[in-house]
Amino acid sequence: MKTDVVIAGQGLAGSLLAWELLRYGIEFRVFDPGDGRSASKAAGGLYYPLAARKLKEVELSAQQLPLMYNTFREIEKIIGKQFLFERPSLKLIRDDELEKWAKAQQNDLAHLISDIIPGIQLKGVVPGYHGVVISASGFVDVPGFISATRDWLVHHGLLVSEKVSGDNIQDSGKHLIINGSHQAGKLVFCEGPAAAVNPLLASGTIRMNKGELIEIEAPGLQEDYILRKEIFVLPTGNCRFRAGATYSHEFHDYEPTEAGLRELTSKLDQIIDTPYKITGHWAGLRPTTRNRLPVYGPLPGNSRVFLLNGLGSRGVIQGPWYANKMVKYLTNIPE
Ligand SMILES: Cc1cc2nc3c(=O)[nH]c(=O)nc-3n(C[C@H](O)[C@H](O)[C@H](O)COP(=O)(O)OP(=O)(O)OC[C@H]3O[C@@H](n4cnc5c(N)ncnc54)[C@H](O)[C@@H]3O)c2cc1C
User: Fold this and answer.
1) Per-residue DSSP letter, 80
2) Are strands 113-117 and 28-31 parallel, antiparallel or unpaired?
3) Do 66 and 179 fall into the same domain?
4) By the number of CB atoms within 10 A of the CB, which of 20, 108, 148, 168 ranks highest?
5) Residues 128 and 258 in one domain
């Protein structure tokens, strides 16, 4: 096999990079055995333009959101399946927070807060909250997107079901030889949390943050809004909801825990007061960095091997943006 770019890893980062290379007409192959755990397979998939704990718009979200919509809508057209679903979020607030949200609606966040509903009453939601409606929000079915992208790549002969071995890459001077036999002009590692054991990366470049989610069935709960308080409750249809997520730096395995379950159900019980059944509970590792910003660019001292990683807890909104930056970097297109 000879190609311009090899992408190592087909999670959200590698998949979005592949679609972006296709858009720019650059030849590529994606390597991923496809049988392992990944952040993308565990993701809640939400996008939301406000910071989780501060009353503030997330940096760059005004630029990243339109690119995210365009990217997924283009891919949906090619594949013929919907992945991105727009849903307003309803931030539940108490009396003492009302004034600052009302001020924000008049000022900096006027473009994001479409309504504030005092004393909101919603089916299955604990009474006594006020509701702040944020319209620019929704979710991407990330596991569905990854699986459909894989099928598309296989169908077009662009997927190699192998892991790229970090210690089996030679540079001939003209191109790279990957896994002993595949020729490529450039290689981009999009390994997600697995980058932590890549021998070519300095230790600590990519860190991990464990997250847990549950799925519940709650026939008595409203399905119009993504509820947000200390957790999100995302309606996915047919009385099913995803609720999450936890954040922990201390555990580096993919197993859901009793402590995670307790944390999620106790936060859930503060906002919903209708019976529910837990139908799923899973965990994943978010790839992150020391300064929480994604990383893209060449590995130090190597002009042919690159990295795109660290999408953290905002892979959906940041992924298209950094995949685009990566392609511009690979092709020397000025920003
Ligand atoms: C519990 C949880 C909830 C989340 N919720 C949200 C959310 O609501 N909204 C949001 O925007 N983001 C969310 N995220 C974050 C988002 O999932 C991640 O930012 C994103 O999925 C990271 O994608 P990635 O491609 O970098 O890594 P991954 O998805 O882990 O993909 C890496 C891929 O590379 C493959 N691979 C690894 N090494 C090699 C190699 N050497 N050769 C070939 N293949 C290799 C792996 O098999 C894997 O398929 C969540 C994450 C978790 C864990």
Assistant:
1) T
2) unpaired
3) yes
4) 20
5) yes
Read off the pLDDT of residues 284-304 as tens digits, 9 standing for 90 and up.
999 999 998 999 999 988 889
Domain that holds residue 59: 2-72+141-206+290-330
Residue range 22-32: average pLDDT?
97
On whether residue 84 sits in a domain, the answer given is: no
Q: Look at residue 250 in the predicted model and tell me its pLDDT.
A: 81
Residue 332 tokens, joined: 């020397």
Q: Does ligand 1 have an atom closer than 6 angstroms to the CB of 294? A: no
Q: Where are the beta strands (DSSP E) in 45-199?
A: 46-47, 84-86, 89-93, 113-117, 130-134, 138-140, 159-160, 169-171, 176-178, 182-189
Pocket test for ligand 1, best of 60, 147, 311 (most atoms within 8 A of CB): 311
Say what the pTM is.
0.97
Choosing from 5, 6, 7, 12 the residue with most ligand 1 atoms within 8 A of its CB, the one to mutate for a pocket test is 12
Q: Between the CA of residue 320 and those of 5, 60, 308, what are the distances in Å?
A: 18, 13, 11
* Closest residue CA from atom 23 of ligand 1: 12
Please tell me the predicted confidence (pLDDT) of residue 251.
73
How many structural domains compose the chain?
2
296: helix, strand or coil: strand
CA–CA distance, 137 with 278 (Å, rounded to integer): 25
**Ligand 1: which atom is nearest the Cα of residue 312?**
19
DSSP H helices in 80-123: 95-106
CA distance 190 to 218: 37
3-state secondary structure of 228: strand
Rounded to the nearest angstrom, the distance between the alpha carbon of 104 and the centre of ligand 1 is: 34
